[in-house]
Design a protein that fits this description.
Elements: H1 2-21, H2 25-28, H3 36-42, H4 46-82, H5 88-119, H6 122-138
Protein backbone atom coordinates (compact mmCIF):
# COMPACT_ATOMS: atom_id res chain seq x y z
CA UNK A 1 0.00 0.00 0.00
CA UNK A 2 2.83 2.37 0.92
CA UNK A 3 4.61 1.63 -2.38
CA UNK A 4 1.44 2.32 -4.35
CA UNK A 5 1.23 5.79 -2.84
CA UNK A 6 4.88 6.48 -3.53
CA UNK A 7 4.66 5.34 -7.14
CA UNK A 8 1.43 7.25 -7.65
CA UNK A 9 3.10 10.38 -6.30
CA UNK A 10 6.11 9.83 -8.57
CA UNK A 11 3.77 9.34 -11.52
CA UNK A 12 1.89 12.57 -10.80
CA UNK A 13 5.08 14.56 -10.42
CA UNK A 14 6.38 13.08 -13.66
CA UNK A 15 3.15 13.94 -15.42
CA UNK A 16 3.30 17.55 -14.26
CA UNK A 17 6.92 17.84 -15.31
CA UNK A 18 6.23 16.29 -18.70
CA UNK A 19 3.35 18.60 -19.51
CA UNK A 20 5.65 21.57 -18.97
CA UNK A 21 8.45 20.04 -21.01
CA UNK A 22 6.43 19.22 -24.08
CA UNK A 23 4.28 22.15 -25.11
CA UNK A 24 0.84 21.85 -26.62
CA UNK A 25 -0.67 23.60 -29.63
CA UNK A 26 -2.22 26.39 -27.57
CA UNK A 27 1.19 27.64 -26.52
CA UNK A 28 2.53 27.44 -30.04
CA UNK A 29 0.52 30.53 -31.08
CA UNK A 30 2.36 32.62 -28.50
CA UNK A 31 5.94 31.59 -29.26
CA UNK A 32 8.24 34.51 -28.56
CA UNK A 33 9.66 34.78 -32.08
CA UNK A 34 6.11 35.13 -33.44
CA UNK A 35 5.43 38.19 -31.29
CA UNK A 36 6.08 41.44 -33.15
CA UNK A 37 6.94 43.38 -30.00
CA UNK A 38 9.57 40.83 -28.95
CA UNK A 39 10.97 40.64 -32.48
CA UNK A 40 11.27 44.42 -32.52
CA UNK A 41 12.77 44.61 -29.04
CA UNK A 42 15.36 41.97 -29.91
CA UNK A 43 15.97 43.58 -33.28
CA UNK A 44 15.61 40.19 -34.95
CA UNK A 45 16.07 40.23 -38.68
CA UNK A 46 13.44 38.60 -40.91
CA UNK A 47 16.07 35.96 -41.73
CA UNK A 48 16.55 35.17 -38.03
CA UNK A 49 12.80 34.83 -37.46
CA UNK A 50 12.48 32.58 -40.49
CA UNK A 51 15.40 30.43 -39.36
CA UNK A 52 14.07 30.11 -35.80
CA UNK A 53 10.66 29.08 -37.12
CA UNK A 54 12.29 26.58 -39.46
CA UNK A 55 14.30 25.02 -36.62
CA UNK A 56 11.20 24.83 -34.44
CA UNK A 57 9.14 23.19 -37.19
CA UNK A 58 11.89 20.68 -37.89
CA UNK A 59 12.02 19.54 -34.25
CA UNK A 60 8.31 19.85 -33.45
CA UNK A 61 7.34 16.47 -34.88
CA UNK A 62 10.06 14.64 -33.00
CA UNK A 63 9.12 16.36 -29.74
CA UNK A 64 5.48 15.39 -30.27
CA UNK A 65 6.59 11.81 -30.89
CA UNK A 66 8.51 11.75 -27.60
CA UNK A 67 5.51 13.24 -25.83
CA UNK A 68 3.23 10.56 -27.23
CA UNK A 69 5.62 7.74 -26.33
CA UNK A 70 6.16 9.18 -22.88
CA UNK A 71 2.41 9.35 -22.27
CA UNK A 72 2.07 5.72 -23.33
CA UNK A 73 4.82 4.62 -20.96
CA UNK A 74 3.41 6.68 -18.10
CA UNK A 75 -0.04 5.18 -18.65
CA UNK A 76 1.55 1.75 -18.64
CA UNK A 77 3.31 2.59 -15.37
CA UNK A 78 0.08 3.81 -13.81
CA UNK A 79 -1.66 0.56 -14.77
CA UNK A 80 1.26 -1.46 -13.39
CA UNK A 81 1.10 0.45 -10.12
CA UNK A 82 -2.63 -0.15 -9.83
CA UNK A 83 -2.38 -3.83 -10.73
CA UNK A 84 -1.93 -5.93 -7.59
CA UNK A 85 -0.21 -8.65 -9.65
CA UNK A 86 2.55 -6.37 -10.94
CA UNK A 87 6.06 -7.03 -9.83
CA UNK A 88 8.61 -4.54 -8.63
CA UNK A 89 10.77 -5.50 -11.61
CA UNK A 90 7.98 -4.60 -14.07
CA UNK A 91 7.48 -1.22 -12.42
CA UNK A 92 11.20 -0.46 -12.29
CA UNK A 93 11.72 -1.55 -15.89
CA UNK A 94 8.94 0.77 -17.07
CA UNK A 95 10.31 3.56 -14.88
CA UNK A 96 13.71 3.10 -16.55
CA UNK A 97 12.07 3.26 -19.98
CA UNK A 98 10.35 6.51 -18.99
CA UNK A 99 13.62 8.00 -17.79
CA UNK A 100 15.37 7.04 -21.04
CA UNK A 101 12.59 8.67 -23.06
CA UNK A 102 12.81 11.82 -20.94
CA UNK A 103 16.57 11.98 -21.40
CA UNK A 104 16.28 11.50 -25.17
CA UNK A 105 13.54 14.14 -25.35
CA UNK A 106 15.61 16.56 -23.30
CA UNK A 107 18.63 16.05 -25.56
CA UNK A 108 16.44 16.74 -28.56
CA UNK A 109 15.20 19.98 -27.02
CA UNK A 110 18.72 21.04 -26.07
CA UNK A 111 19.78 20.53 -29.69
CA UNK A 112 16.85 22.62 -30.89
CA UNK A 113 17.56 25.38 -28.37
CA UNK A 114 21.24 25.34 -29.21
CA UNK A 115 20.53 25.78 -32.91
CA UNK A 116 18.28 28.72 -32.11
CA UNK A 117 20.85 30.11 -29.69
CA UNK A 118 23.47 30.12 -32.44
CA UNK A 119 21.25 32.41 -34.50
CA UNK A 120 21.15 35.06 -31.78
CA UNK A 121 23.84 37.55 -30.95
CA UNK A 122 25.10 37.68 -27.36
CA UNK A 123 23.16 40.93 -26.93
CA UNK A 124 19.96 39.28 -28.21
CA UNK A 125 20.44 36.33 -25.85
CA UNK A 126 20.77 38.63 -22.87
CA UNK A 127 17.80 40.71 -23.98
CA UNK A 128 15.66 37.63 -24.52
CA UNK A 129 16.41 36.45 -20.99
CA UNK A 130 15.34 39.85 -19.65
CA UNK A 131 12.15 39.78 -21.74
CA UNK A 132 11.28 36.35 -20.37
CA UNK A 133 11.88 37.51 -16.81
CA UNK A 134 9.66 40.54 -17.39
CA UNK A 135 6.82 38.49 -18.87
CA UNK A 136 7.05 35.81 -16.20
CA UNK A 137 7.11 38.31 -13.35
CA UNK A 138 3.83 40.00 -14.29
CA UNK A 139 2.08 36.84 -15.53
CA UNK A 140 -0.04 38.89 -17.95
CA UNK A 141 -3.17 37.37 -19.43
CA UNK A 142 -1.60 36.96 -22.87
CA UNK A 143 1.76 35.73 -21.68
CA UNK A 144 4.21 34.64 -24.31
CA UNK A 145 5.35 31.08 -24.46
CA UNK A 146 9.03 30.50 -23.90
CA UNK A 147 9.78 26.82 -24.46
CA UNK A 148 10.69 25.53 -21.01
CA UNK A 149 14.27 25.99 -19.92
CA UNK A 150 15.35 27.54 -23.20
CA UNK A 151 16.47 30.73 -21.54
CA UNK A 152 16.22 29.95 -17.87
CA UNK A 153 19.06 30.75 -15.56
CA UNK A 154 19.58 27.04 -15.01
CA UNK A 155 20.39 26.19 -18.60
CA UNK A 156 21.26 29.50 -20.28
CA UNK A 157 20.75 28.17 -23.79
CA UNK A 158 20.30 31.74 -25.00
Amino acid sequence: MKYNRIFTLIFLITLLFTSSVFAGKNNEKKLWWRNGQVVEELELTPAQVKSIESIFQRYKGEIKYFNKELNKKENKLQKLIQNPDSTREDVLKTTDEINILKADGHKLKVNMFWEIRELLTPKQRTQLRLIKERYMKGKPKNILYFPEDCISNDYKYY
